[in-house]
């Protein structure tokens, strides 16, 4: 998948996990990995970017003697998901157009 397209999709995948409730990095990776590959080195900069954009907030909580950072979606993050879903309808139309017009034989 194209890197820029994947980046935008990953943002929405992470936000959709957080839409179910606050979560932490390892759990987010586990959930998102069910549909698209993601690593820690990709997730944490993505989370920071989403936080800077106002799409999520963070808080820390003790867990088994360690401090764990949790991420929580904001109204801006929810709006981002809705915008993606609206854009998806347009993308489906574009995909259908390209699919219908694509030649199945080789280019001359």
UniProtKB/TrEMBL annotation:
Gene3D superfamilies: Winged helix-like DNA-binding domain superfamily/Winged helix DNA-binding domain. Signal peptide: none annotated. Pfam families: PadR. Residues 14-82 form the Transcription regulator PadR N-terminal domain. InterPro entries: ArsR-like_HTH (IPR011991), Metal_resp_DNA-bind_regulator (IPR052509), Tscrpt_reg_PadR_N (IPR005149), WH-like_DNA-bd_sf (IPR036388), WH_DNA-bd_sf (IPR036390). It comes from the Bacteria. PANTHER family: PADR-FAMILY TRANSCRIPTIONAL REGULATOR, TRANSCRIPTIONAL REGULATOR, PADR FAMILY. This is PadR family transcriptional regulator. It comes from Murimonas intestini.
